What we know:
The complex is a heterodimer. Chain A is mostly helical. In chain A, 74% of the residues lie in helices and 3% in strands. Chain A has helices at residues 5-40, 47-65, 68-91, 98-120, 144-166, 168-178, 180-185, 190-212, 222-237, 242-259, 265-282; strands at residues 134-137, 140-143. Chain A has a two-stranded antiparallel ribbon. In chain A, β1 and β2 form a beta hairpin. The termini of chain A are far apart. Chain B contains 14 helices and 4 strands. The relative contact order of chain B is 0.17. Chain B has a domain at 30-245. Chain B has helices at 10-25, 31-57, 65-82, 86-108, 113-133, 135-138, 163-186, 188-198, 200-206, 210-236, 246-259, 265-284, 289-302, 306-320, and strands at residues 144-145, 151-153, 156-158, 238-239. By secondary structure, chain B is mainly alpha-helical. In chain B, α3 runs antiparallel to α4 (86-108), α8 (188-198) crosses α9 (200-206) and α11 (246-259) runs parallel beside α14. Chains A and B meet through α4, α9 and α11 of A and α5, α11 and α13 of B.
Amino acid sequence: xxxxxxxxxxxxxxxxxxxxxxxxxxxxxxxxxxxxxxxxxxxxxxxxxxxxxxxxxxxxxxxxxxxxxxxxxxxxxxxxxxxxxxxxxxxxxxxxxxxxxxxxxxxxxxxxxxxxxxxxxxxxxxxxxxxxxxxxxxxxxxxxxxxxxxxxxxxxxxxxxxxxxxxxxxxxxxxxxxxxxxxxxxxxxxxxxxxxxxxxxxxxxxxxxxxxxxxxxxxxxxxxxxxxxxxxxxxxxxxxxxxxxxxxxxxxxxxxxxxxxxxxxxxxxxxxxxxxxxxxxxxxxxxxxxxx
Amino acid sequence: xxxxxxxxxxxxxxxxxxxxxxxxxxxxxxxxxxxxxxxxxxxxxxxxxxxxxxxxxxxxxxxxxxxxxxxxxxxxxxxxxxxxxxxxxxxxxxxxxxxxxxxxxxxxxxxxxxxxxxxxxxxxxxxxxxxxxxxxxxxxxxxxxxxxxxxxxxxxxxxxxxxxxxxxxxxxxxxxxxxxxxxxxxxxxxxxxxxxxxxxxxxxxxxxxxxxxxxxxxxxxxxxxxxxxxxxxxxxxxxxxxxxxxxxxxxxxxxxxxxxxxxxxxxxxxxxxxxxxxxxxxxxxxxxxxxxxxxxxxxxxxxxxxxxxxxxxxxxxxxxx
Lengths: 292, 321
C-alpha cells in the first residue's frame, strides 16, 4: 500500500489530532506521577491503577446518575480522597526510601486491580459516546467528544499551573519541594502538604482515566498499557520536571500516533522506547532538569 | 592453614541438612508436592539472582522477567527449530541473557534510583509487548510447546519427562547456583559490591569503577534469571509471552522483601513461603494477589529487612547482651 493523495492527508491529519488529544490526557496522568515523585520521592507504580479506577468509577457514576460529567467529577473526587488514605495509611512509613515506595505501591496496585476484577468483572467494557457529535475540519471528520476532552484537559492543566504558581498553597508546595525542613521550620505543615500532593496526583490520574473512559476500553488491566507510555514520557522529560513532562507528552504521543499509520501499535511503542533510549544516551537526566 | 578452612556456620549446616533431606525424600514425595518443590527450587534461583541486583548492589529492578523470558525462549527456540541438545540449548539461553544483560545494563545501570526502576519497567513491558505481538516467533499468548531432549552425561541419558529425574535436575542447578552465588558475594568483588551498596560515592572516591561493578552485578543477575527461565521452560516444556510478564518481575521483589534481601537465603525463604500460598490459595480464590499486596504493605510497616533480617538482628542482639 502506497500512502498517497488526499485520502492519506486526511488520515494523517486525523491521527495527528488524535495524538495531540491523547497527549493532553496522558499529560494529566504523567504530571500527577512526576509531581508526586518531585515532591515526595515516591515512584508510584499504582498510578496507572488510579487512572484505571478513575475510568471504572466514571462507568459506575454514569450508570448511577445518568450524567457522564457528574461521573467524571465524582470519580476524580473519590480517587483524590482515596489518595489521602493511601498516603497516610500505606506510604507514610516508607517515605524517603524510593525503592520501598515501589514495593508498597506494587502492593496497592495488586489490591486495586483484584478488587476491580472482583467487583467490575474481567471483561473490557465500551462506554457510549457522551457527546455524539462530529466536527468537520479541513475535510477531516473528527469526533467532537475528543475535541471537548482536549479542552477540558487543557483547562485542568491551566488550573494546575494556577494552583502551583499563583496561590499560597502552591507556594507552600513549592517551598516543601525545595527544602522540606526549612519549610517545616517556617510553619508549613509538611505532613498536610504531602497528603495534599498525593491526593492531587491521584486525582490527576483519575481525571485522565475518567476523560479517557469513552475513548478506550475500560477494564482492570488497562493501567499497564498507559503506564509504559507515562513512564517513557517522564523519563524523556526528566523525572520531577513538570515542564519536561508536558513537552515530552506533546512530542511522544503524536509521534506514536502518526507511526501507527505505517507500523503496528506495538512497533510504534518500540519506536518510542528507542527514542527514549537515544535521549538517555545523550542526556541521562532527561530533556529538562528536575523542578526544584 | 587450618584457620582458612570454611568454618561450619549455622546457616551452612542448615543448608547442608536441607540438601540432604531434599536428596533423600525425592522419590518418596507425592507428585503434587514434588512438583511444588521443583517450582520452589527454580524460582529460588530467580530470587537469588534478584538479590544479587537489589540486595547486594542496591539496584532495584522491576523488569527481571525480561531475562526469565529470554532464558525460556533461549532454550526453546534452538531446540525446536535447530534440534540442538539440552546442554547446548541451556548454553545458548545463558549467552543470550548475558548479551541482553550487557545491552540493557549499559543503558540503565548509569541511572541510579528511581530512573533505574522506571527504565527496567519500560524495557520489561516492551519485551512483553513484542513477545505478545511477534506470534511467528514466540507463539504469543498461546505460547509454544517443545519436546525436551534428554539430559546426557557421557554414555548416560536421562529423560526429563520422568518427574523424579526432573526433580534432581532442578535440585542440582539450585544447589550449584546457591554455592556459586554464595562464593561470589563472599569474594573480593562481592565485597566491593557491598561497599557500593552502602555508600556509592565513597566507593567511587576510593577508586572503584562503580559503573563497571554495578553492570557486572546486572549481568550476573541476568545470567541466573535466564537460567531459571530456561529450567522453567524445560520443566513446563512450554514458553509463552507470559514468561515476560511484569507480574513475574514483581514476584522477585515480593520474595526478596518478605524473605529479606541482601542475604541470598532470605529470598529463598520468601519463595518457600509465598509460592505454597499461591499454589494452595490460588486454587480456590483467584484474587490471592490481594493477600500478597497486603503482605507487602504490612511487612514494610514492620521492617525493611524481611524475615531473615529480623531474625539475624534478634540473634545479634542476643549475642551482644
